[in-house]
Write a structure and sequence with these properties.
By secondary structure, the protein is of the alpha+beta class. 29% of the residues lie in helices and 24% in strands. The protein is built from two helices and three strands, in the order H-E-E-E-H.
Length: 102
């Protein structure tokens, strides 16, 4: 009698299903969408402007020119803003700014 054994490569993270969702941690997903927004901004000459100091941002804007705001997020209270890069990526995609440098 033969026993069938299936080999699993343990070096592969079984929880990571895709780059845009699945069982990714919140920090990993945030990093993916931050990089997408950053690359889209590089491709279309958009500028990311932070309001505040690191770890205590009150807002973030994506500007086409110094006076044209394409997308933005602001804190509604005195707490630091938790930037939703996925929403900003969706806002840029809805306007037509897609793609990016890899």
């Amino acid at each position: 009698m033969l026993n069938r054994v299936s080999f699993v490569d343990k070096s592969v993270d079984m929880k990571k299903k895709s780059q845009t969702g699945g069982n990714m941690s919140a920090a990993a997903e945030k990093k993916v969408f931050y990089n997408r927004v950053r690359r889209t901004c590089l491709l279309h000459d958009l500028e990311i402007v932070y309001d505040g100091v690191p770890k205590m941002y009150a807002g973030v804007e994506i500007n086409l020119k110094p006076d044209i705001i394409v997308a933005c997020q602001y804190s509604k209270n005195s707490k630091p803003l938790n930037i939703d890069w996925k929403k900003l990526h969706g806002d840029l995609s809805a306007i037509g700014f897609t793609g990016g440098v890899k």
